[in-house]
């Protein structure tokens, strides 16, 4: 019998010894605007540590990305690893600022 017939097959991402599923994919944890609206007061400085303290962004070493699900009416200064374009526009329309973690200068809206 040929060797490829005698060897067992390791298929699928859930097999114990198979290759990991999408090994080069960057995973992020999502934080929605409705969660920021419900958990933070107007004018608050929303950092990664503040998100963890309020029960958002709980996984260590996984970047946080702010998504635009829901509405926001409070001016907040949000520090995160990433922002969707519509979330960034909504935060800035409410009078807040978006700060990318790693670059401490507030991001400016695109012309």
UniProtKB/TrEMBL annotation:
Keywords: Ribonucleoprotein, Ribosomal protein. One of its GO terms (molecular function) is structural constituent of ribosome. One of its GO terms (cellular component) is cytosolic large ribosomal subunit. Residues 31-99 form the Large ribosomal subunit protein uL15/eL18 domain. SUPFAM superfamilies: Ribosomal proteins L15p and L18e. One of its GO terms (biological process) is translation. InterPro entries: Ribosomal_uL15/eL18 (IPR021131), Ribosomal_uL15/eL18_sf (IPR036227), Ribosomal_uL15_bac-type (IPR005749), Ribosomal_uL15_CS (IPR001196). Pfam families: Ribosomal_L27A. Belongs to the universal ribosomal protein uL15 family. This is Unannotated protein. It comes from freshwater metagenome. The lineage of its organism: unclassified sequences, metagenomes, ecological metagenomes.
């Amino acid at each position: 019998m040929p060797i490829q017939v005698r060897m067992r097959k390791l298929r699928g991402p859930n097999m114990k010894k198979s290759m990991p599923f999408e090994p080069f994919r960057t995973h992020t944890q999502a934080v929605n605007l409705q969660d920021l609206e419900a958990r933070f007061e107007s004018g608050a400085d929303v950092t990664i540590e503040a998100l963890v303290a309020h029960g958002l962004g709980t996984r260590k070493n996984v970047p946080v990305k702010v998504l635009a699900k829901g509405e926001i009416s409070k001016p907040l200064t949000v520090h995160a690893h990433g922002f969707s374009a519509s979330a960034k526009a909504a935060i800035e329309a409410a009078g807040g600022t978006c700060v990318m973690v790693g670059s401490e200068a507030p991001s400016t809206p695109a012309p």
